[in-house]
Design brief:
CATH superfamily of the largest domain: Phosphoenolpyruvate-binding domains
Largest sheet: 8 strands, mixed
CATH architecture of the largest domain: Alpha-Beta Barrel
CATH class of the largest domain: Alpha Beta
Mean pLDDT: 89
Strand order of the largest sheet: 1-8-7-3-4-5-6-2
Structural class: alpha/beta
Number of domains: 3
Low-confidence stretches: none
Radius of gyration: 25 Å
Shape: globular
């Protein structure tokens, strides 16, 4: 019988392999007095420039391996290097203390990280790891030191570390790193989120696992249970082998559904599509049997640059996706900035409550130069595939009419120029604001389709910031109030012969599939990794049974009641 340790279940899956204990990078820093502040600041500036190049390379790697959402972490890290709170304090420290750059960087990073670590909010405490990751990157550049030698891993292992920075995690080879376990961390850490995207089992927050394991020891990991067994015995190995066999069989069973129709046993057909943030992600959607792109986030074109993308740059990206999907539908969401998506060169104002402020369609209707450039690119690309356009953050009928007027103006301009486009391009809106759900029957007269963005709809409906761990218990996508709003949207659209999709995270949750099916949802769009799981539920659920389940869910009192209905 092996020695059992329990930590935080961070990423599902099981694995058994030799341990590979990652020693922390040696970043010993000494204080050197009497340094020239100007010369040391110049060194810091060079280190910042080099760090930004590294972060851009990591962003590209994350895009290819995981997707746009995870890649944005490295955008955030690069933005830290422009943050006066960080960089300004380093410069002030150099001038006040006249010490070497390494000591100034370490001192400021330690101070800022300790502030985060002292907060009550779990999510904010986890952000200390981001601060330290950025700081260590600067120190390595200043010292000319190399990072961890993850490339030295040449056989299947379980990676054991005190912590893994996101920049470490994104470079892991899932074929060799069968799982990882760490001393620190939580389920909401960026490292845990990335592990789930990569499909690597992980257990974090084990306390001192690095002190209890040596490289070469056999180690078994159950990421779903938060369980680690060091030197597992025969009984342990047999149990883990059975679980691995079960999971492999489940993956094979789901893979067989790649080309299967998304239709219930009694004939109700729906569309199951994928969400993407870049053209590179199309391949993942197609590999999982996606029937379309239900959400193409266009923001990637606007980020990590100093000026807006040109019409031709956008056209090339949209055309690439249209042609890759070969006649399958592609919904392009127009620029959705503001809130948590800042783009410095746009000069958006700092706001006390940005999620309720100047963002998305509100920016586009104000900055018609940006909006019309994007609409021209989308229309031109529509000649090469089945594109649809979708406006985000709609609250009123007036906004829809104003956006459509901009689209018609662009169409007229392209006609005068003799530029071909799909004159019957479908136009839709995202339903993210409860006010839009309430007047769905009126909005349906204006557009061809709706797509429900549940991430925002849930937090607006329940007045609950979905990133705030302190009130995480209130973020309830299956709360009956949310389900009633979804039903209101679907009924309002269907009354006018319009179809309804969903592109928020709820669409990819297999626990919700039967209820959403029963509510009448026509299209489900999700991350590529969820497509086959949702198709499996659709194909095994009678539509009549789903409608009965949905009716009971609408009459439930709590989300817990809804979950019991699903599980029962």
């Amino acid at each position: 019988m092996g020695t059992v340790y329990r930590g935080v279940a961070a990423s599902d899956g099981v694995a058994v392999a030799k341990a590979w204990v990652m020693a922390p990078a040696a970043l010993s820093v000494e204080r050197v007095e009497g340094a020239d502040p100007a010369a040391e600041w110049a060194r810091v500036e060079q280190a910042i420039a080099a760090a930004k190049q590294e972060l851009e390379a990591l962003r590209q790697t994350a895009l290819e391996k995981m997707g746009e959402a995870e890649a944005q972490l490295f955008v955030a890290h690069a933005q830290m290097l422009d943050d006066p709170e960080l960089v300004g304090q380093i410069r002030q420290y150099l001038e006040a203390e006249r010490v070497n750059a390494e000591w100034a960087v370490k001192s400021v990073i330690d101070m800022l990280a300790s502030i985060f670590e002292g907060l009550d909010d779990e999510y904010m405490r986890q952000r200390a790891a981001d601060v330290r990751d950025v700081g260590n990157r600067l120190l390595r550049r200043l010292q000319g030191a190399e990072g961890h030698h993850l490339a030295d891993i040449s056989e299947p292992v379980v990676l054991v570390a005190r912590d893994l920075a996101p920049s470490d995690t994104v470079q892991l080879d899932a074929a060799l790193v069968r799982a990882f376990v760490t001393d620190v961390g939580g389920r909401t850490s960026h490292t845990a989120i990335m592990a789930r995207s990569l499909g690597i089992p992980a257990v974090v927050g084990l306390g001192d696992i690095t002190a209890r394991v040596q490289s070469g020891q056999r180690i078994a990991v159950d990421g779903g249970e938060g369980l680690v067994v060091v030197d597992p015995g025969e009984d342990d190995l047999a149990r883990f082998a059975r679980e691995m066999e079960r999971q492999q069989g489940e993956r094979a069973r789901l893979a067989a559904l790649r080309d299967a129709a998304s239709v219930t046993p009694d004939g109700r057909r729906v569309e199951i599509a994928g969400n993407i943030g870049t053209p590179a992600e199309v391949a993942q959607v197609l590999a999982q049997g996606g029937e379309g792109i239900g959400l193409f986030r266009s923001e990637f074109l606007y980020m990590n640059r100093e000026t807006p993308p040109t019409e031709d740059e956008q056209f090339a990206a949209y055309r690439e996706v249209a042609e890759a999907m070969a006649g399958r539908p592609v919904i392009i969401r127009t620029l959705d900035v503001g809130g948590d998506k800042g783009i410095p060169y746009l000069g958006l104002p700092q706001e006390d409550n940005p999620f309720l402020g100047y963002r998305a369609i509100r920016v586009c209707l104000d900055r018609t130069d940006l909006f019309q450039t994007q609409l021209r690119a989308i229309l031109r690309a529509s000649h090469y595939g089945k594109l649809r356009v979708m406006f985000p953050m709609i609250a009123t009928v007036e906004e829809v009419r104003a956006a459509k007027a901009q689209l018609e103006a662009v169409k007229a301009s392209l006609r005068r120029e003799g530029v071909p486009f799909d004159d019957h391009l479908e136009v839709g809106i995202m339903i993210e604001i409860p006010a839009a759900a309430v007047v769905a029957d009126r909005l349906a007269r204006e557009v061809d389709f709706f797509s429900i963005g549940t991430n925002d709809l849930v937090q607006y409906a329940l007045a609950c910031d979905r990133l705030n761990e302190r009130i995480a218990h209130l973020y309830q996508p299956l709360n009956p109030s949310v389900l009633r709003l979804v039903k209101m949207v679907i009924d309002g659209a269907h009354a006018h012969g319009k179809w309804v999709g969903m592109c928020g995270e709820l669409a990819g949750d297999p626990r919700a599939t039967a209820i959403l099916l029963g509510l009448g949802l026509d299209e489900f769009s999700m991350s590529a990794g969820s497509i086959l799981k949702v198709r499996d539920v659709v194909r095994s659920t009678r539509y009549e049974d789903a409608k009965a389940l949905a009716a009971r869910a609408l009459e439930a009192d709590t989300e817990a009641d809804v979950l019991r209905l699903v599980e029962g």
